[in-house]
TrEMBL record:
Recorded name of the encoding gene: gatC
GO BP terms in the entry: glutaminyl-tRNAGln biosynthesis via transamidation; regulation of translational fidelity; translation
UniProt entry tagged with the keyword Glycosyltransferase: no
GO terms for MF: asparaginyl-tRNA synthase (glutamine-hydrolyzing) activity; ATP binding; glutaminyl-tRNA synthase (glutamine-hydrolyzing) activity; transferase activity
Name of this protein: Aspartyl/glutamyl-tRNA(Asn/Gln) amidotransferase subunit C
Family: Belongs to the GatC family.
Source species taxonomy: Bacteria, Pseudomonadati, Pseudomonadota, Alphaproteobacteria, Rhodobacterales
Gene3D superfamilies: Glu-tRNAGln amidotransferase C subunit, N-terminal domain (1.10.20.60)
EC code(s) of this entry: 6.3.5.-
Length: 95
C-alpha cells in the first residue's frame, strides 16, 4: 500500500503533529514502509499460537475488585481547583 502526500498530511493533522511541507514526502515514504511491513506480518501463519502477555509463563497479579473512596478523600480534594460538599466541582458544559 502506498501513502501519498495528501494522506501523510492528513495523518499528521489527525496525530496533531506539525510537519513542514518539505518533510511530507519523507513522511509519506516512511508510512508506506510501515504499511508494507504490516502486510508482510499478515502473511505469517499464527494458527495454533496462543496469545501471551510475557515471554515467561507467569500469572499476572490480581487484586480484589472493591470500590473504595481511596481512604483519604480530603487529601485528594485538596488538589482540586474547586471542590464542594466532598466532590470535584466542574463548570457546566451542557445547557
Amino acid at each position: 500500500m502506498s501513502i501519498d502526500i495528501d494522506t501523510a498530511r492528513r495523518v499528521a493533522h489527525l496525530a496533531r503533529i506539525a510537519v513542514a511541507e518539505d518533510d511530507l514526502p519523507a513522511l509519506a515514504q516512511q508510512l508506506s514502509g510501515i504499511l508494507t511491513f504490516m502486510e508482510q506480518l499478515n502473511e505469517v501463519d499464527v494458527s495454533g499460537v496462543e496469545p501471551m502477555t510475557s515471554v515467561t509463563p507467569m500469572r499476572l497479579k490480581r487484586r480484589a475488585d472493591v470500590v473504595t473512596d481511596g481512604g483519604y478523600p480530603d487529601r485528594i480534594l485538596s488538589n482540586a481547583p474547586d471542590a464542594r460538599e466532598g466532590f470535584f466541582a466542574v463548570p457546566k458544559v451542557v445547557e
